[in-house]
Design goal:
The complex is a heterodimer of chains A (about 180) and B (about 270). Chain A is an all-alpha fold. Chain A has helices at about 5-10, 15-35, 40-55, 70-85, 85-90, 100-110, 120-125, 135-145, 150-155, 160-180. Chain A is about 75% helix and about 0% strand. The relative contact order of chain A is 0.09. The chains are: A mainly alpha (about 180), B alpha+beta (about 270). At the A-B interface, helix 2, helix 3, helix 4, helix 7 and helix 8 of A face helix 2, helix 3, helix 4 and helix 5 of B. Chain A: This is RNA polymerase sigma factor.
């Protein structure tokens, strides 16, 4: 069964299709949320909420609006960002800075504790091999934080048009690494 | 349309990131349907992002998994399991309530029976008490009688005369306690056999020289008398006492053959 059919059945409230989609995307969604909330238990909780949410508003998805994963990613980002902006979260004085992804490898290297960031960084290291910080930054902003091109250009202090191309080249590098890994 | 340039523009990466406008999204979607290269490129970009996000999954302590989601969307009946537990609870509590009610009812019956029995017991005890009280009263009465009897026997003015059995009844005996001051004589007739029907014992005071019998009285209701002690008036100067069996109502003079006991008064 291909993804389109799965999504269609999911939209018709087919729980089995939903479970397949859940298994397909749960880790990705949880990973994205964790980069924002930086708390694996909270990330897991929000990820569960995200799947409940997409089930309840499955009607609002349409392939013409984008990829199914993109749709979930968007819901997850919003949920995670809502959480970190919430009063209770701020009260816990969590780090709100958008540098989780960029610093993750440095922190892992300096501390000699692979799990201090609550992720296993070995796979990540291979993936982001040769990717510069500016790549990691722009990927985090665009994919995990939902920054608009304008916001990203402002944040990174680069021309608006450069955001698109830089992102393109960074993703290409990532794809190269993946291809290398597969070989 | 130059597909390569379109791909190189980086719009597809933004498409996967979900950062395009609605029109742009629709445009990319339609292009993807039209050009397989575009669709493949999109898939490849998405795969890269999936790979990346896969690599930043936290290490988990507790994965609730899809079951949790199922419960929460109401597809799994686990939520109702909670309700069922409630039902079970209420069932259990209703069982407990019934059991309690039955126990209570049984308890009431038991108490009622117990109470009834106790009442009966109390009645019985009361009756027994009555009987005992009567017995005590009787005993007191008989004690008083006995004491009176004893004191009358102990009186210093009393002379005691033993009456021995005669021919008609050699085993018979009796005693006469005569109080000359009070002119009374107590006859203890315990040693006499019960008189036959229609007959009665008659007590005689005798003067010996010449032999003159004077009737002192009858031992009436001999059978009914418990202590067989009879008090009679005796104003006579008695020298001896005799008891004879006479027809009911007594006789003028003693029937000599029917004298049961006889004894002379010893002068003190």
């Amino acid at each position: 069964m291909d993804l389109d059919e799965l999504v269609l059945r999911f939209q018709k409230k087919d729980v089995i299709a939903f479970e397949k989609l859940y298994e397909m995307y749960w880790e990705n969604i949880c990973g994205v949320i964790n980069t924002v909330v930086k708390d694996k238990f909270l990330a897991e909780e929000i990820a569960q909420d995200v799947f409940i949410k997409i089930w309840n508003k499955s009607d609002s998805y349409s392939p013409s609006k984008g990829r199914f994963f993109t749709w979930i990613l968007n819901v997850a980002r919003n949920a995670a960002i809502d959480k970190v902006r919430s009063k209770s979260f701020k009260d816990q004085q969590k780090n709100l800075s958008a540098d989780f992804f960029v610093g993750i490898l440095d922190r892992a290297e300096t501390s000699d504790q692979p799990n201090n960031t609550q992720i296993d960084t070995s796979a990540l290291k291979k993936l982001v091999l040769n990717l510069k910080d500016k790549c990691l930054q722009i990927i985090e902003m665009l994919y995990f934080r939902g920054y608009t091109q304008k916001e990203a250009s402002h944040e990174l202090d680069i021309p608006l048009g450069t955001v698109k191309t830089r992102n393109r080249s960074c993703i290409s590098k990532l794809r190269e690494n993946i291809t290398l890994e597969w070989k | 349309m130059e597909v390569d340039n379109y791909i190189a523009s980086g719009i597809l990466e933004l498409y996967v990131a979900g950062l395009l406008t609605e029109e742009e999204n629709l445009e990319v979607h339609q292009n993807a349907l039209q050009y397989p290269e575009i669709k493949n490129e999109i898939m490849a970009i998405e795969a890269a992002i999936l790979e990346l996000t896969q690599a930043i999954v936290p290490t988990y302590a507790d994965r609730k998994g899809f079951d949790d989601v199922k419960v929460r969307i109401g597809e799994r009946k686990d939520t109702k399991v909670v309700q069922m537990t409630r039902d079970e609870k209420s069932n259990l509590s209703s069982y407990i309530a019934w059991a309690a009610a039955i126990l209570f009812g049984a308890g009431l019956v038991w108490f009622y029976v117990q109470n009834d029995q106790l009442k009966t017991n109390i009645e019985m005890v009361n009756q027994q008490n009555g009987v005992l009280e009567q017995q005590i009263l009787d005993a007191r009465g008989s004690l008083t009688e006995t004491e009176a009897l004893l004191s009358s026997l102990r009186d210093k003015n009393v002379s005691v005369t033993s009456l021995g059995g005669q021919e008609v009844s050699p085993d018979s005996y009796a005693k006469a306690y005569w109080n000359k001051e009070q002119n009374k004589v107590l006859i203890d007739a315990q040693g006499l056999p019960e008189p036959p029907d229609g007959m009665v014992y008659q007590v005689w005071s005798l003067k010996l020289d010449p032999l003159t019998p004077t009737s002192v009285g009858l031992l009436e209701d001999f059978d009914a008398d418990e202590n067989k002690v009879f008090t009679l008036n005796n104003p006579n100067e008695s020298e001896a006492f005799a008891i004879s069996l006479e027809p009911a109502g007594g006789s003028e003079g003693p029937t000599m053959e029917q004298i049961y006991t006889l004894g002379a008064v010893t002068s003190s």
